[in-house]
Specification:
Elements lengths: L6 H8 L10 E5 L2 E4 L4 E4 L2 H4 L8 H11 L12 H12 L6 E5 L2 H16 L6 E5 L8 H6 L3 H4 L9 E4 L4 H7 L4 E6 L2 E2 L5 E2 L2 H14 L2 E5 L23 E4 L10 E5 L20 H16 L2 H18 L7 E7 L2 E6 L4 H9 L2 E2 L1 E3 L3 E4 L7 H26 L1
Parallel strand pairs: 3-15, 5-6, 5-7, 7-10, 10-11
Antiparallel strand pairs: 1-2, 2-3, 4-12, 8-9, 11-12, 13-14, 14-17, 16-17
Helix pairs in contact: 3-10, 4-10, 11-13, 12-13
Length: 403
């Protein structure tokens, strides 16, 4: 990239075109980011639910800086103390006797879920996993096959076998897919990428009961719902569920890549030496970042703040609906909130950028808000004001098109 070439031009020249960035962001602090032209934005996307402590949180920065000068990586051929410390912290928030496998991403954490399920089921000759339509579990071949969306699978055939897709919130459709080859059911408690679609409490507990009755594993993809996003440490805890294993990533590292598969005592020793591995997963630098996230969430009482501020934001958005009839629903929990529109959401996303508010259009007609958990009342109120301004401007622009 030369001095005259813009960053966007460089993207088009040097990177595989899997993304089409709308903004070029160069600096962040707390709830705010700035683009290359100096324009400020209120960040209610947080790197897609990653930056739970916001940008450049002092505790996180200090932890990463200090660890970078001590030890960064030794591979998993050797131990380091931070990995055990982080694993202990996670299992203590789940079930005593659980075990953790660290990876680099959510997709890898979900790969580990799939592998532990198949390894556990191999003794009884079972391998099939039921997932949900409209779900999202990753972009690797196995996880995109687990994803119940044809659009992410197109062009990658032949896909791995052993997955079937039930209708989310429809227990009859789940039961209809159970066979003598079924080993597990994998789902998200809220389908975030699928449009912020919450699971019904009754449905989720019926799935849990079905797993117990048929000796199936209940696997939870908590990549986006976990790490305080719903106001509980893990998303499934907001629903009172006890999975056999679950995945984490995104907010776990607060901006540093790390994922985890947490297995209950039932599955704690299924994966033995040689059955799974990773070079970078859970290295010292990643674990230092994740430990800073856990410690800061506790110190700053961010779980309670998430519940309060998320409710404040949802209530304010709901109150806007009479003014903007194109908003048909506001749904979600904690700081995972979807605004459902009666038309494509991408143009409104672009209008929000103009007003200095970052969120993302998903599932065609939904605006998804997943801000840092550090958001306070002033941040919420400012986001509401900017969203209202975007909606008013967009409504004016849209009305001539609707007549």
């Amino acid at each position: 990239m030369n001095d005259k070439q813009s960053i966007k031009d460089a993207y088009g020249t040097y990177l595989v075109p899997t993304y089409a960035p709308a903004l070029t962001l160069v600096r962040g602090e707390g709830m705010h980011v700035w683009d290359e032209g100096g324009k400020e934005y209120l960040d209610f996307l947080a790197g897609i639910a990653v930056l739970c402590l916001g940008h450049a949180h002092p505790a996180w920065v200090e932890a990463v800086r200090e660890q970078a000068g001590v030890l960064t990586h030794v591979s998993n051929l050797h131990a380091h103390p931070l990995q055990a410390k982080l694993a202990r912290a996670l299992t203590e928030k789940f079930v005593p006797g659980s075990r953790v496998f660290f990876s680099n991403s959510g997709a890898e954490a979900n790969e580990a879920l799939i592998k532990v399920a198949r390894k556990w089921g191999s003794a009884s000759g079972r391998h099939e996993i039921i997932t949900m339509k409209n779900s999202f579990h990753g972009r690797t071949l196995a996880t995109l096959t687990a994803t119940g969306q044809e659009k992410v699978q197109t062009g990658f055939a032949p896909l791995p076998t052993g997955f079937s897709y039930a209708t989310f919130n429809d227990i009859a459709s789940v039961k209809a897919l159970v066979t003598d080859q079924t080993v597990a059911i994998l789902l998200e408690v809220i389908q975030a990428e699928g449009g912020v679609v919450p699971g019904d409490v009754e449905f989720l507990h019926e799935v849990e009961a079905l797993c117990h009755d048929r000796d199936l594993l209940l696997l939870i993809d908590d990549v986006q719902c976990g790490m305080g996003r719903l106001g509980t440490w893990f998303g499934f805890q907001a629903y009172g569920l006890r999975p056999d294993a679950f995945s984490l990533a995104k907010g776990l590292g607060g901006g540093f890549p790390i994922g985890a598969m947490v297995a209950s005592p039932k599955l704690a020793e299924v994966l033995q030496p040689g059955t799974h591995g990773t070079t970078y997963g859970g290295n010292a630098l990643a674990c230092a970042a994740a430990l800073a996230v856990l410690e800061t969430i506790e110190k700053e009482a961010l779980l309670n703040r998430t519940q309060a501020m998320g409710e404040r934001f949802r209530n304010a958005l709901t109150a806007m609906m009479p003014e903007f009839p194109f908003i048909t629903e506001v749904r979600g929990m904690g700081w995972l909130i979807g605004v459902v529109l009666d038309r494509p959401a991408k143009p409104l996303e672009a209008r929000m950028f103009q007003e200095g508010l970052i969120a993302v259009a998903t599932a065609g007609n939904v605006i998804r808000f997943v801000p840092p958990l550090i958001a306070e009342e002033a941040d919420v109120d400012e986001a509401v004001a900017r969203f209202r301004a975007a909606c008013r401007a967009w409504k004016t622009e849209q009305e001539p098109m609707e007549k």
